[in-house]
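Justification of computing resources. Each target in the renewal requires a structure prediction run like the one illustrated here; the chain below, 240 residues long, is used simply to show the kind of job we budget for.
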Amino acid sequence: MAVLTLYKEKFNQDGFTVIENVYSEVELDAILQELNKVDSSRPTFRKSADLFAIRQFLKEVPAVAPLIFTDRLRQMIKSFFGAGYSVVKSIYFDKPGASNWFVSYHQDLTISVNKMVDMEGFGPWTIKQDQFAVQPPLDILEHNFTVRIHLDNTNEQNGALRVIPQSHRKGIYRPETINWSKESETVCAVPKGGIMLMRPLLLHASSRTTNEERRRVIHVEFSNRDLPEPLKWSEMGDVF
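Resulting structure tokens:
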């Protein structure tokens, strides 16, 4: 419990933390067995030489949900954030060993919703693979959090996230305005079976793979905010 308190303090200060050994080898094998059954031809799947991704992951692969949301993870979430949070977005990423895929510095500024509505405070809008996404009011983003579950060892050589600590406290922070004389970068290496907790407003990036090692990550976002009618979260899940 004392160790968990230290993780929580780091998260509250810097906007992220890495916790090792959240999933056992047996638990990881069970998750991977379900992933191996997936039909990759479905429209919410993205497949290229550099990246395989499944949007609305928990809708597309529902059998994996009880394997991900173990008692241990649930207890961690309640310890860090309290009760009343629900899953509102889920994505699976598979970055092959030969991938040249990279992502430059950005914040996760959009949420996934059920429809496009002209509503004050919501915008701009995008549509990806028949899924509506919109930038909501800042209050929603400030209270959301993300859990990234690592199915492989991830380090600087195969695309571990690079982050700018405490950047989540600065509202909308455009990457072109980063002042590197004041900001510092941290590489978030996460061992297989570990998780990374982060705030969506944390500036983060990912480099190309250089060691030819695979990187598979399950990305799950949570919120305790209700959206104004008629908007609804596109992936509203069980309340934790």
